[in-house]
Specification:
Elements lengths: L2 E14 L2 E14 L3 E5 L6 H9 L6 E6 L2 E2 L7 E4 L11 H5 L8 H14 L15 H14 L4 E5 L7 H18 L2 E5 L3 H7 L2 E5 L6 E6 L10 H14 L13
Parallel strand pairs: 3-8, 3-9, 6-7, 7-8
Antiparallel strand pairs: 1-2, 1-4, 4-5, 9-10
Helix pairs in contact: 3-4, 6-7
The structure holds adenosine-5'-triphosphate and magnesium ion (MG).
The site of adenosine-5'-triphosphate has 12 residues, from strand 1 and helix 1.
Length: about 260
């Protein structure tokens, strides 16, 4: 596997009201082509900022970040992004939302790509619907299709299922795994949901509170990702230990 992303000693500070706030601290991470990386960490630890830097939407303050050995100078069609809210344009049909980034192609080619992605996310029959006519899960499917339609090498997902109910969320996780297996796109996903991080991530990046540092990168070796399986529980405990103290063992006296 080739290295698609190389992040070395990366720092990010924001200037707020004349004060420097360090958001990311000494981030070192290499990502191989075709990997599925999940990122977990406290709110405000810089996860979205890191995705924005990878997307070329935000500049890092020091250190280096290379995509396929080249510095990231700005947004690129090679990097797609899906956000927590679907961000579909309400006045465009689903097919036009999905094809939005394909303006430079001729009509026939564009239609073929759009249809391929509609089928991929199982939205066939809704090509001519408007976003307001779709459920939350369907809208996120459309957003994923739009993110993949330009055939990016990397798809960044920032809490894409955060606004969905628990059952739809599990279904969407299964769908995303299927899409990843079919498309082989490198995926980097931020999530607050530890189960989701284990279910999807082949490596899980655990970050500290702000300034966000990488505390551990956990490789999920197991083939058994069934929620509640012993393997799954092992990884869950390992991640939880980074965020919460172990419950104190209490000696219990039984009076018979
Ligand atoms: N453009 C900006 N200007 C100033 N500060 C910013 C800017 N963007 C983000 N921040 C600050 O950087 C910190 C990290 O923000 P970020 O959105 O990356 O966190 P996060 O880990 O994604 O949090 P959450 O899990 O809540 O989405 C926060 O303290 C935020 O206030
Ligand atoms: Mg965020």
């Amino acid at each position: 596997m080739a290295e698609i992303l190389h992040i070395e000693h990366l720092n990010k500070t924001f200037n707020v009201d004349g004060k420097e706030i360090q958001v990311l601290k000494d981030i070192n991470l290499d990502i191989q082509e075709g990997e599925f990386i999940t990122i977990v960490g406290h709110s405000g630890c810089g996860k979205s900022t890191l995705l924005k830097i990878i997307a070329g939407l935000e500049k890092h303050s020091s250190g280096s970040i290379l995509r396929e050995e080249k510095p990231i100078l700005g947004p690129s069609p090679e990097v797609g992004m899906v956000f927590q809210e679907h961000r579909l344009l309400p006045w465009l049909k689903i097919k036009d939302n999905i094809g939005f980034g394909l303006g430079s192609l001729d009509r026939k080619e564009r239609e073929e790509i759009v249809q391929k992605h509609i089928d991929l996310v199982k939205l066939s029959g809704f090509e001519n619907a408007y976003p307001s006519q779709l459920s939350g899960g369907m809208s996120q499917r459309a957003a994923i299709a739009r993110g993949l339609s330009t055939n990016p090498k990397i798809l960044l997902l920032d809490e894409p299922f955060g606004a969905l109910d628990a059952l739809t969320r599990i279904q969407m996780q299964q769908e995303l795994l299927r899409i990843w297996e079919e498309e082989k796109t490198t995926m980097i996903m931020v999530t607050h949901d530890i189960d989701e991080a284990i279910y999807l991530g082949r490596r899980i990046v655990v970050m500290s509170a702000r300034p966000g540092e990488i505390k551990e990168v956990i490789r999920v070796e197991t083939g058994d990702r069934t929620r509640g399986s012993p393997d799954f529980s092992f990884y869950k405990k390992r991640i939880y230990e980074h965020f919460f103290d172990e419950p104190q063992k209490q000696s219990v006296e039984y009076i018979i």
